[in-house]
Amino acid sequence: MNVAKVLDAKGLSCPMPVVKAKKAMDELTSGQVLEVQTTDKGAKSDLPAWAQASGHKVIDIKEENGILTFWIEKG
User: How many domains does the chain have?
Assistant: First the structure.
């Protein structure tokens, strides 16, 4: 997977991971992939809901050692 940008949102709580993901996504062009790393458990539902509402696509989600990693393709 070709990641265009990595966002470290670890330690931030809702709604900051989504707010920062939106800002990072604004810098990308359609088809590019944003990787978001967060420790906020609420992001499990928040980020996919935001991505869908914004026309983006969640490619994959991984959880390892308390860190959630999302790969979101810009729509």
Answer: 1
Q: Range of 61's domain? A: 3-73
| Catalytic residue (choose from 12, 14, 58, 59) | 14
pLDDT per position as a tens digit, 17-68: 999 999 999 999 999 999 999 999 999 999 999 999 999 999 999 999 999 9
14 is catalytic: yes
How much is the pTM? 0.95
Q: What is the CATH number of the domain that holds 29?
A: 3.30.110.40
Helix and strand counts by DSSP (H, E) for the chain = 2, 4
